[in-house]
Design goal:
single chain, 369 residues, Rossmann fold, six-stranded mixed beta sheet, 50% helix, P-loop_NTPase, hydrolase
Length: 369
């Protein structure tokens, strides 16, 4: 794990990142929202702080931590389906050792959100017997899935509680900053329990380059603020420094072996293997095939590279070679005198953010840094 910490720090300090300036995004509505959240936190009986499971520390709003630590709080590490499950368990153990209630969730899964609600009810057990109205606040940085969580809570609450008020839905979108006001939603009666969905807010100044790039890579900061090519280069630097392509090489070899075993067992001697199908331009490239080709391309360029990836300028050379090779995989036409990798970067980031390239956790446990 210490190696991963050094990898992320080294990737964050590379020239193409430093040259792009600090990563900060704090539009006017965030400043107003931050003030409103602080005011309403005084009234909250429970706070659910949603973080991205891929960055359990980097997705914390440090400006709110002193206030949140004084409240009943549950850390909900959302998007657990995109995070490495083995490392995720170690993070849960870490927060438990810090006496912090924490649960990993998938905000789109009813069973997962039901577990979160069960923990919330347990935390509010004493207050429920004393108060007629209770308030739960959901907070977090942009694009960690707060609104998706709110909508899942609505669906579950509608089947569990006799709520007659018309349910409202929170706006959900793939871009950070969709929710720009604070809205209240009644989810239960006797006692009345309200959930407040809040806008995603960042700190006015992100403390370091590494944290800012992780937030950008996971979608908490708008791509236009940092630049898609810069974010994609950061991703590739992480993958190369961590030697992830070597892991993919073993997976790809195993997939080919399984495919051949299946063909032999079924008596299918067709030569239309996934790799051959991908190379036939007349056939559609399915997402799974595309992902395998991306992994194969990054693997082959990594293995064929004769430079020293411990040298920053040579690592950057490898990254440029990989982006050029991926342009062909994504079938992006080459434009004369255009040396940018914008469209290629966008497609690569889409695959990463959707979990198609595999589960990752970019932060490292504090005691293992």
């Amino acid at each position: 794990m210490r190696g991963l910490t050094r990898a992320a720090k080294r990737a964050g300090e590379m020239a193409f990142n430093a040259g792009g300036g600090a990563v900060n995004w704090f539009p006017g509505h965030m400043a107003a929202a931050s003030r409103a959240i602080r005011d309403r936190l005084k009234l909250a009986d429970l706070v659910i702080e949603v973080r991205d499971a891929r960055i359990p520390l980097s997705s914390a709003n440090e400006d709110l931590q002193s206030v949140l630590s004084a409240k009943r709080r549950i850390l909900a590490l959302n998007k657990k389906d995109l995070a490495n499950p083995n490392i995720m368990n170690r993070w849960l153990d870490h927060f438990e050792s810090c006496k912090q209630d924490c649960i990993s969730i998938n905000a789109h899964s009813s069973s997962s959100v039901s577990q979160l609600l069960g923990l919330a009810e347990l935390k509010l057990k004493e207050a429920i017997s004393k108060e007629a109205t209770l308030l739960i606040m959901v907070v977090g940085v942009p694009n960690v899935g707060k609104s998706a969580l709110i909508n899942s809570i609505h669906r579950i609450a509608a089947s569990r509680f006799p709520v007659h008020d018309k349910m409202k839905r929170a706006t959900v979108g793939p871009l950070p900053g969709v929710t720009q006001d604070i809205a209240g939603y009644k989810i239960a009666s006797q006692p009345s329990i309200y959930v407040l969905d809040t806008p995603g807010v960042l700190v006015p100044s992100i403390p370091d380059m590494e944290t800012g790039l992780k937030l950008a890579l996971t979608g908490a900061v708008k791509d236009s603020v940092v630049g898609e090519e810069r974010i994609a280069k950061y991703l590739l630097s992480l993958l190369n420094i961590r030697k992830t392509p070597l892991h993919w090489e073993r997976l790809l070899l195993r997939r080919e072996e399984l495919y051949e075993e299946t063909c032999r067992s079924t008596g299918n001697n067709s030569r239309d293997s996934p790799r051959r199908r991908r190379m036939n331009n007349s056939d559609a490239i399915y997402v799974q095939d595309l992902v395998m080709e991306v992994q194969r391309t990054l693997c082959s360029t990594f293995l064929d590279f004769t430079g020293d990836t411990d040298e920053e300028n040579q690592l950057e050379t490898l990254i440029d070679m990989q982006l050029t090779a991926l342009r062909k995989v994504f079938r992006i036409p080459h434009r004369p005198f255009d040396e940018t990798h914008g469209p290629t970067s966008k497609k690569l980031l889409t695959l990463f953010r959707s979990g198609k390239l595999g589960p990752f956790i970019l932060d490292d446990l504090p005691d293992e840094q």
